[in-house]
User: Fold this.
Amino acid sequence: MAYSDKVVDHYTNPRNIGTLDKSSKTVGTGLVGAPECGDVMRLQIQVNDVTGMIEDAKFKTFGCGSAIASSSLATEWLKGKTIDQALEIDNMDIVEELALPPVKIHCSVLAEDAIRSAINDYRIKQGLEPLVAEKSHH
Amino acid sequence: MKLPIYLDNNATTQLDHRVFEVMTPFFLENYGNAASKSHAFGWKAEEAVDYAREQIATLIGANEKEIIFTSGATESNNLAIKGVYEMYAAKGNHFITVSTEHKAVLDACKHLEKLGAEITYLQVGGDGLIKVEQIEEAIKSNTVLVSVMYGNNELGVIQPIREIGKLCNSKGVLFHTDATQTVGKIHVDVLADNIDLMSFTAHKMYGPKGVGALYVRRKNPRVKVTAQMDGGGHERGMRSGTLNVTGIVGFGKACELARLEMESEAKRLSQLRDKLENALLKLEESYVNGSSEHRLPHTTNISFKYVEGEGLMMGIKDIAVSSGSACTSASLEPSYVLKNLGLDDELAHSSLRFGLGRFTTEEEIDYTIDCVTEAVNKLRDMSPLWEMFKEGIDLKSVQWSEH
Assistant:
């Protein structure tokens, strides 16, 4: 199976690899997937607690090229967004942007899960209610 | 050095030029049907087939009458298993095989289960090997066939075929081996190994695709299989269909070359393989899967912990290998062979299989070592699991989300 140019680009030049201080109150960390499934994503956001703006985003991913590209793209999109805007990122947007084939849609789902999970972690740290029901995936 | 580099010789091999040369006249000039007995076109084809049959038989220590041509090893496996089931129905319905066999064997057995066969699937040890005692314990009064592959396609491990053959012979049970990866790579002798039926194919030994053989013993005991392809009664009635003369001529030549070059080639390949393996094992947390002692000279299967196999293959795009990871399959299930060794799914996802071949050079191996090392290090730098491992976190203690 051939990868799209955009997947290859994100794989070769991944954006925002790294680690933020997960103990910080303004950092939200999402760790999703499982090693035995062959995909683990860790996505972190640094939120400005005054403006509610995501000022930085970092990821590390264990997985195939599409999983790496999905998380790399997610960090790119997250930066500069508010939490509410970030919650609007849909896995199908990632599928479309990276031209993921059907067998790789789960990579985009995982990236969306990682975003929600990171936001939840941030909300809990801020003393807010965690998000309720997961919205359904496409 | 030309890129990309082919290190997937367990999947298929490049056709040897010397094989191609003997095949060419049979595409255009000598196009006769080997079954045409009334004219020179047919005689010429038949003569070429007979010669190839001899070349093939010689490689495995068989008589040329014991070679049944098929379309490949999948067909040979099907013919052996289903053909024995039908032919020996009066004797019993119990078959013994191993959980790490090729799908052509496992799925043929599953098919027979639906028809009323009783199949025992033996589990291998952590080294990928089966013990003769396991087979001895599994043999019952109604056991008809034991089918154990010679060298495993994913790991390269070699089963104790000679001991199994001896056991089956003493118990009066037929013994089939899928020797697809083995014939032409190491010395195989059907008499010394007490093999009754053996599947093998041309394209794994620098011959053409689409032609294989089933060795069917004629003496002590005389073995017969019920044809699975009915028609003109070719191949002593066991496999009908016009012979693929061109392919068979190539198969014969491939066997002859293998016989002449096998010994020095096995030595050269095992040295190259060991060089590759030793260099890659210098990477932290990398492991060889399966026995290092009993295995084919050209294969190694290595897991690089905390790196996902498919992602890794993308990082070494100029090197053609295969992975135990099955990220592309809908089930997300990694290799059943690796899982059968008792490997964690995670390690199975992290594996690469390197299959060296006749045309592999030392320069290519050196390039591969550098390339894989670099890619593993790069991917570990972006692996959350590697970071956790380095922080001393036991990954088994982590509550992973459902996926």
